[in-house]
Specification:
Distance between the termini: 14 Å
Radius of gyration: 21 Å
Strand order of the largest sheet: 9-7-5-2-10-1-11-15-19-20
Bound molecules: guanosine-5'-diphosphate, 6-O-phosphoryl inosine monophosphate, magnesium ion
Structural class: alpha/beta
Shape: globular
Helix content: 25-40%
CATH topology of the largest domain: Adenylosuccinate Synthetase, Chain A, domain 3
CATH architecture of the largest domain: Alpha-Beta Complex
CATH superfamily of the largest domain: Adenylosuccinate Synthetase, subunit A, domain 3
Length: 426
Amino acid sequence: MANTVIVGTQWGDEGKGKIVDMLAEQAGAIVRFQGGNNAGHTLVVEGEQCILHLIPSGVLHQGKKCLIGNGVVLDPEVFLKEIDGLAEKGVDVSPERLMISKKTQIIMPYHRLMDNCRESLKSADSKIGTTGRGIGPCYEDKMNRCGIRAADLADPELLREKIVAGLQEKNVLFEKLFNVEALDAEKVYQEMLPIAERVAPYLADVSSVIQDVNKAGQDVLFEGAQGVHLDIDHGTYPFVTSSNVVSGNAAAGSGCGPKQLERIIGICKAYTTRVGAGPFATELFDETGETLQKNGHEFGATTGRKRRCGWLDMVVLRETARLCDLTEFALTKLDVLSGLSEIKICVAYDYNGEKVDYPPQEQNGMAHVKPVYESMPGWDEDITKASSYEDLPEAARNYIARIEELSGVKVGIVSVGPDRAQTIVR
Ligand code: GDP
Ligand code: IMO
Ligand code: MG
């Protein structure tokens, strides 16, 4: 298969989990390289749904190594809950196959509190609409060089020292700025001890495990979370997440070299969705938007919020292709477009009266673009049982061909339903 990176090309929820689950069969290991439990990746196998927030989406394939890389921020309580849930279903979650990098940053209770305090203090139009999982504050501590790393969970003295030091500063903010009760460092530490003890057996040198898998002649699947337009540098800043989502971070966030990334698949929903605040040029506020939301069951897999829906945006996709060196697209949820008489594609933006084919980089630039649309005929057929490209109606094939033309990237995989089996590989 080749070492393969999976990235979301839009604003997340493109169907990464489904495609990772499908490709995991051919891999020796699956590694998450950024983000945390802000992610919600949905797998459906023979009608049974499984939503994963932290554990790599290859976990349902027995024997495949599932790795959590150094670029991830890991909430240990969520990790334990997730493995308990999987174990109940009979999935093997032993440390022989499930490993956490010793360098992974740990989300602490005070990160979650800080995330929610910060959001509540913001004015209505500056709220990011974060998932409230402590993602931003945890990455802040990492960059500030005071974060707790997974390895520290096996070093109680260091763990206590870092909690005390961290809360010294944060408690001033909690009490004086946010008007909430300060956290007691000793209590946080004591509550952390049993959790740390349970997580400790999963600590590993993930970077070396990746090298070993490749040396044994097997491929690694790098599972991205979020979408490139939520990237901390390249997304619609400040309405972004706090990590680099682009494919290049698969190397840094898992501990391998960039030349090890061979195939880079951009997961692309056949239309666009976004959860949380921030500019969205092709957003629909009409009946068509409601139809997409309803037919696509567009509710956040993590927070349950309604996803905003709109047409496909080629400006967004071309930017992703360039930033990530995409070798192909996996086009998902094509079935959701069935029944629409007309399908629109945004091919460029009108930005201050000028036609542009790139996202403006000024802070409010993306909020002021107007989409320039091209229109294509839709199709009525139910395509959820299509098992080959030829099974798709001509109008659907034309839509795919136009996406390829406008992006310069081929569509290698087409998904026509949530189930693992509802996938066409070209
Ligand atoms: P992720 O975060 O990128 O893994 O995506 P999510 O799991 O958050 O959201 C994608 C949703 O679409 C999930 O409910 C999937 O089960 C579902 N899904 C994935 N592919 C398809 C598809 O081709 N057709 C339909 N109808 N649903 C799909
Ligand atoms: P998956 O991996 C969709 C969004 C949040 C918010 C912004 C910042 O399932 O595609 P954060 O909690 O990260 O600080 O929130 O990013 N967001 C996502 N939107 N899918 C995701 O993950 C997301 N992870 C974060 O809604 O707008
Ligand atoms: Mg999701």
